[in-house]
Amino acid sequence: MSTKKVKVAIIGLGFGAEFIPIYQKHPNANLVALCQRSEAKLNELADAFGIDKRYTSYEELLKDPEIDAVHINTPIPNHGEQSIKALKAGKHVACTVPMATTVEECAEIVRLTQETGLTYMMMETVVYAREFLYMKELYENGELGKVQFLKASHQQDMDGWPNYWPGLPPMHYATHCVGPVLALTKGEAEYVSCFGSGTIREELIKEYNSPYAVETTHIKFRNSDLSAQVYRSLFDVARQYRESFEVYGSKKSVEWPLIEGKPLVVHTAKKPEPEIPEEIESPDYAKLLPKEIQHFTTQGVYDSEENEHLSFTQGAGHGGSHPHLVHEFVEALVEDRSPYPNAKQSANITCVGILAHESAQQGGAIIKLPEFTLS
What we know:
2 domains; six-stranded parallel beta sheet; GFO_IDH_MocA-like_dom; Gfo/Idh/MocA family oxidoreductase; nucleotide binding; NAD(P)-bd_dom_sf; Gfo/Idh/MocA_Oxidoreductase
């Protein structure tokens, strides 16, 4: 393994705190700075983890020549603007989902990576979760046979979440279900068609002028016979939290459990009918990681009653994905290669959601993905 070290700063210390010890333990990373608007929270975490460089100003942090890369974990409306600022300041960027909130911001991030040669990676948890890695292993080993269809959902009750969440159009935060359907085959979305269904409460509708309780999108893959279906709900739908991903192949198919914590169901073709389905506990994939960070697939900062973050507790620990995300980003920089998902792939995933909502507003109209999102 290379001895090169990437000097990283973490921006935003709510969910972002989860990544502090992972970067500290990664053999090719050096966590040099933290940034948080609240000085009290900043000092509390920086003291706890022994980090000297502390910034309450993102703009000041970007002037620091010691920092090679930033990992952005701020509220969704800030992602695009802050990623653009970092690339213009000469920093590599890892950013939590989604990439941005507009097609224009996505385009600018892609343009800047092409212009500067800097690396951008959207830190999509689902495509590094153990369940996805299990299905990916089946796919790469040929056990699924020909992939025929992909399906995913993300349903969550967001009542009580603060700031910009109330009334958010479901497809504006769709990367957790769009990401895996595209990532399995490294496919690209060519066009989308989406329908809205149902109606949320009046006080929620006025926030974004979006009435839909559920949005369901069909994604047509580019240069492929595949399509996928994804659906998303945030308010006024009775459903336990669920981020599901299902793949249907000619030899085997894998379906997500209906209840959180239950095993995956693997269907094998041509067996006697009662023997076709089998419940499978997804293995952990810590073996893919450096030994120093392997234990983070099953534990982290927010895994106790004293330390809880809604996105982590509702997200079932994000399938052990956090150390895999850090490793992919850091190793891409060390090896001077493109991470998955890179800027174009992240834009393709993110723009599916943005354009799907536009499609719903137009009664299901077909909308093509922009050229800049395609390889």
